[in-house]
Amino acid sequence: MPALKSTIDTRDAGYLRNQAAQTEAVAALEAQLDVVRAGGGDRYNTRHHERGKLLVRERLELLLDRDTPFLELSSLAAWGTRFTVGASILTGIGVISGVECMVIAHDPTVRGGAMNPYTLKKNLRALDIARENRLPVVYLVESGGADLPTQSELFVDAGKIFQKLTQLSANGISSIALVFGNATAGGAYVPGMCDYCVLVDGGAKVFLGGPPLVKMATGEDSDDESLGGARMHSHVSGLGDQLALDEVDAIRIGRQIVAELGWKKLGPGPTRELREPLHDPEELLGIAAADFRVPVDPREVLARVLDGSEFGEYKPGYGSSLVCGWGSIHGFAVGVLANHNGVLFSDEAKKGTEFILLANQTDTPLVFLHNVTGFMVGAAYEQGGIIKDGAKMINAVANSTVPHLSINMGASFGAGNYGMSGRAYDPRFMFSWANARLAVMGAAQLAGVLSIVGRESAASAGKPYDEEADAQRTAEIEAQIERESHAFFTTARMYDDGVIDPRDTRTVLGMCLSAAHSQTVEGRRGFGVFRM
Length: 532
Description:
With 532 residues, the protein is of the alpha/beta class.
């Protein structure tokens, strides 16, 4: 397989402009991640330590195998909302006793680990990833339950946590609850639904209703231990399988349970030699465009992501704005679909469709690198069948069963997002670069469309058009769409699984591919009707 050559000039003004913009975007990302890592802040962290408890990331560090990576997911959930960024819960994939697991951990320093609407979305997404990729789940439980003022946004869908946990068990995917503190009300069903339950003596409190609620409901006087203490559940109710001496002991027991699962991956695993790219991933900061309207040659990206920078391009002379081909990442074979000039024409749609079919025939996972403004519009393209051809590609994406991994490198607009396996098409994982944008279309285009519609409406009604009001409205709409298409805004709403530094793309994809190979990797042999 030929190695990609790079033509990047690191002294070029465009490269330096991109590098400056991406460095600023990554710095903004790191600043927000620092807020997430701080949890409830110094005051609440200190109080937690004074109670003899470990912080959530300290628990995680003890749980994971030493010196192994952790792929944190949905880090900026709830960013820009009234809730603390991170949504009071930590989720991600890490290695425990040699087994890749999904970790879901409450952060009790943030409102006692209470669940708000974004916590729920983040929790459910983690459970979906665990199911799709066949990852055992380890819950680190310490939560006061629902954030009651938001109950109207929580109560109905919160039941899906329990539904998904039981479905994991039915599918033979193990779940383990390590309970460090409160697990109250509906939260009590998490340890109840998990396959294994470890309770910390003197710390865990698992009950449907605490003493005040019991008093109000029944008139009965009770205490925490008799209602839901670790010893009671371990010796009387039978909810607890193991009684841990303390938090460190609970983590030790949890690691032991994972080790005793005898877990084996179902996928083939890496089949190629792992080789570093020939070109420096640091240069991705200068390759990623500061302005999504400036095309990026995805081969320059692939040269810094693929093993040995080797890429077997498919139909290089046809449908040139969609680059397709074969390679590997950390030894895992992949097919790649990557946008070049931002627009998908009919040839690109047909090329992409064929390539997806080929990947399914050979059970090869697909990596989608987004930098797309949509499918081409205009009378000539409509008459040429762009709708039919776009439908072919979307059909192939929707029915493909090999793992899909999506990275938004710049822009992901309109139906181009669908054709490139956006969130609605259930990619196994989807991440965005720090400067990426996601929307129905670009801010200027959207505002311009509304302006044209307004002008036409005024003309048809025979009324004069208010140019001053139009200019003000256009500016307001552009500002709104710029704000709502920002990577932080979209990831806060779980439209991807996290925002990443472009330089981490190869590592993130490698970890995702490894996780995906915990499940069977198998393509579809039959598809729906393709409009010809």
